[in-house]
Structure formats: C-alpha cells, structure tokens
Amino acid sequence: MRERTDALEAIASSVEKQITALSFRPFTPRQVRRILGITNQERLFWTRDGRLHQTGTILNNQRGQKFRVPVYCAERIGWLSQNPDMIAAWRDEDARILTQEGLSDADLSS
Known about the structure:
By secondary structure, this protein is an alpha+beta fold. Helix content is about 65%, strand content about 15%. It contains 6 helices and 2 strands, in the order αααββααα. A two-stranded antiparallel ribbon has the order 1-2. The longest helix is centred in the N-terminal third of the chain and has 22 residues, at about 1-25. The chain is elongated and about 75 Å long. The protein starts with a helix and ends with a helix. The model has no long low-confidence stretch (mean pLDDT about 85).
C-alpha cells in the first residue's frame, strides 16, 4: 500500500511541475490578443511605447520557413487579464491623445 501511495505522490508531483512550467511559458502575440481582447494595432503600439513588455523571441518553423516571434511574460499578461481596467485606461489615454493631436488609430501604429 505504501509503494502505491509513493507512486501516486510522484505522479502528482510530476503533473504539478508540468502545470507550473506551462503557467510561466511566455505568450505569443496571438495569445496576447486573445487573452486581453485587444487588437493587433493596440498590441504593437503598447509594445513600442513600453506598456507591454516583450520577454524575448522564439524561433518558429512553419513550412520550412524559420522566423522569430516575439513573446510576452505570462505573469504580466495574466495580471492584465485580471485587471481589465488597466486596458480600459490605456485605451482612454490613447483616445485622448488622438483627440488632442487630431490623429487616427492608424497613426498610432506607425
């Protein structure tokens, strides 16, 4: 009986480690857009102005073509998803800037 309990504890520990590793895995731009409910323009603009921080890049191999994809911190994206008021504040700030400067949304992403 003790051996069975030890085996189950080892399996549970292994699963917990795998789940923890997945929870800290960085998010791709597509995942960030989906999780935060933002547009690609917003992601690009907020990345450029420092509101969204890239943690690095990953190498993607698609149909023999290799290219780098930026990735974002899972912890920070998780925090933002739990605090949608921050996204709303960023949008309000962007709208205020657009209104003051007479710009369009496309101008922000340039």
